[in-house]
Each structure stands twice: as C-alpha cells, then as structure tokens.
Specification:
- It contains nine helices and seven strands.
- By secondary structure, it is of the alpha+beta class.
- The chain folds into two domains: about 300 residues, Beta Polymerase, domain 2 (2-Layer Sandwich); about 45 residues.
- It has a seven-stranded mixed β-sheet, with helices on both faces.
- A hairpin with a 4-residue loop joins strand 4 and strand 5.
- Helix 8 runs antiparallel to helix 9.
- The protein starts with a strand and ends in an 8-residue tail after the last helix.
C-alpha cells in the first residue's frame, strides 16, 4: 500500500495512513488487489476516520473481482469506477524500444488481455485498487514527483518568486480521470499493431496461393470481438460517470466551478478516446470480413477461370475426336481410307478446325487471362 498527500503546490508520500485528514489537499491511497483483500479492515477503518464512511460490501466485492467488466456505480459518499486496462506486459511500446517478439504479426492479438483497476472517489480521498502487475500506480507516483521536482528546478533557474503552476491534479476525480486517460492511451497505441497485423492477414488472404492459417483468422476475429466488448463497457462506464458528474450540486465558488468544468471536459476527452478505439476496432472487423469475402470471391473466380479453360479445350477437341473416331471405323468403303493423300487431307481439316476454334474462342475472350 502506498499513501500520497497531494496539494496545489506539493506532492509527498506518507509512511502510514494518517489518523485524520490533512488541513489541505487530498489523499491518494493506492493498494494492490491481494493486499486490499488481506488488509480490508484497516483500509475500511482508515476510510471511516478520513471520510466519515466506508465502502459498502457490494463495492468491496467489485473491487476484489478480477473478472469484472468496466462499470460505474455511486453512493451518497463516493463514486465507484471499475476500468479495465491492458494487462502488464501487453502494453505496446510507443517508441519501439522493446525487443521484437519471435512472431511480430501475433504481437497485437496476444496483447489484448485486460485487468480491472478500481477507483473509489471520495471528496478528499482517492482509493485505487490495482492488480499485482499493474504499473499505473508507480507511473503516476513517479510522474507527479517529477512534476514537482521539475517545477522547482525551473523556478530556481528563473528566479521568479511567483513560481510556475504545478498543474497537479486538482482533486481525487481529476487524478482518477488522468489515470483512466493514461490507460486508454494504451489502447490507442494498440491500434497501430492491430492495423499492421490485420494488414498482414488481409495480404495473406488476397495472395494468389491458398490460405491455410484459418486458426489465425479465427483468433483475430475473437480478439477483435473481445476488444470491442471491452471498449463498449468502458464507454458505458465513462458515460455513466459523466451523467453523475452533471448531477453534482452547483458551486458558488468560481474556483470550484472551474474545477467541475475541467472535470467534465476531461471526462468527455476520455470518452472521445474510447470511441476512437471502438470505431477503429469496428473498422478492422469490417475490413477483415471484407478480406474474407474477397478471398472466397477470388477463389471462386479462379475456379470459374479454370472451368472455363477446361470447357474451351473440350469444345476444341470434341470435333477433332469426332473426325478421328469417324475415320477410325472398320469399313472398307470409307472415303479417303485407301487414298495416299487421305491422311493429309483429314489432318489438314483437323488442323483448320483446331486453329479456327482456338481463334474463335480467343476472340470471344474465353482463353484470355483478363477475360
């Protein structure tokens, strides 16, 4: 468990949970799911001291469930958001610094594995429950510390007593939305890998040779359906959060009004990012389906071309077989059968028939590849 105290001009990690709320700022309590299950009573007691209330049993079960889809719920004391993120080890590296896997074309589909992250948003406390392999907590702890250190260094260099605004999260809801936006960015990066892999799949489908890796195609479709379902759950959860945010009581303080407006703006931005991922996944699904249909159309066209060629060859050799069969009959009085030039006359007739029929079918575009 890690506990952080965040104010407008500072960020500090606390060794233990405080006995009372600090005079300013808010607290961020980040705990792993297994640790949260084992230490539930101390966490609930700390929430009672700090916020005047505890998590209800149903929401505790939600936070402990590793298979729960993204969803949103609320009470009079707090809002609860469960958001599924890409599992650790599956986040694509934007700069390409990670070593390439043995099969790069399988990287994107293997990356579509998710774990839920839970957020309980109180007025001045944010409780986050992470899977054991989740790096979101460590990333934001390091990022907020770097923001404070970087602002202090810039102020020291400038010699400005007013200082540069830190732009730290203004409250628990703001910090929660920044974490969610960071998780959605992982899905945005995944789009590039999905596009590359589906492009490879489509190229294999449209190649002249036979396509045999149908298991790969099935896995691709299943993975895209899984990602689509995940994004739809995320969109529903964020939309419910936006609806709940609209029902927050109006504030007379201009500063709080601006903070609420920024929350709504950031929430809409997160929703727009999710919809971009969802729209891209649906386009990939449609593109894969189109490639499959084009593959079967190409195979059908190839079969038709082969059958047409065989039919034309049969039509050419049919009269020739008729002539040879006619003169192969065992009759003494057959014309030209005893003539020295009979063979060459029949051979010439057969040659003219063959060449004439071939030219005729070629002119009708029955033997051309572009027919």
């Amino acid at each position: 468990m890690r506990v952080f105290h965040i104010t407008a001009d500072g960020f500090a990690e606390l060794a233990v949970l405080p006995d009372a709320m600090p005079s300013g700022g808010y607290l961020w309590i980040g705990v792993e799911r297994h640790e949260f299950e084992l230490g539930l009573e101390p966490v609930q007691s700390a929430l009672q001291r700090l916020t005047g209330g505890q998590l209800v049993d149903l929401h505790v079960s939600d936070l402990l469930n590793p298979h729960l889809p993204s969803h949103f719920d609320y009470t009079s004391l707090y809002e609860l958001l469960v958001f599924r993120r890409l599992a650790a080890g599956s986040n694509p590296v934007p700069n390409g610094d990670a070593p390439a896997p043995a099969d790069p074309t399988r990287q994107a589909l293997d990356a579509i594995d998710t774990n839920p992250v839970g957020f309980a948003v109180f007025d001045r406390v944010l409780l986050t429950v992470h899977p054991s392999d989740c790096q979101v907590r460590e990333f934001f702890a390091a990022r907020l510390a770097q923001m404070v250190a970087g602002a202090g260094l810039r102020n020291e260099r400038r010699g400005d007593p007013r200082g540069i605004p830190l732009r730290l999260p203004a409250g628990p809801a703001d910090l929660m939305l920044r974490m969610v936006n960071h998780m959605v960015d992982g899905y945005l990066e995944l789009r590039r890998l999905l596009t590359r892999e589906l492009g490879t799949l489509q190229q294999a489908l449209l190649d002249g040779g036979g396509f045999s890796n149908w298991r790969w195609l099935l896995d691709s479709r299943v993975a895209l359906h899984l990602l689509e379902d995940t994004c739809e759950d995320q969109r529903s959860a964020i939309q419910e959060w936006i609806d709940a945010l609209a029902e927050w009581p109006a504030e007379n303080d201009p500063g709080l009004q601006r903070e609420h407006e920024l929350l709504r703006l950031r929430s809409r931005d997160v929703l727009e990012h999710i919809e971009r991922v969802l729209g891209h996944v649906r386009r990939l699904e449609s593109s894969a389906e189109t490639a499959v249909q084009m593959h079967f159309s190409a195979q059908s066209n190839r079969t038709n071309t082969i059958m047409r060629t065989l039919t034309v060859l049969t039509a050419i050799f049919l009269p020739l077989n008729l002539v040879t069969g006619f003169f192969g009959m065992n009759f003494e009085g057959l014309p030209l059968i005893h003539s020295p030039t009979g063979f060459w006359i029949v051979f010439g007739v057969m040659l003219v028939l063959g060449v004439g029929l071939s030219a005729f079918f070629w002119r009708k575009r029955y033997l051309r590849r572009d027919a």
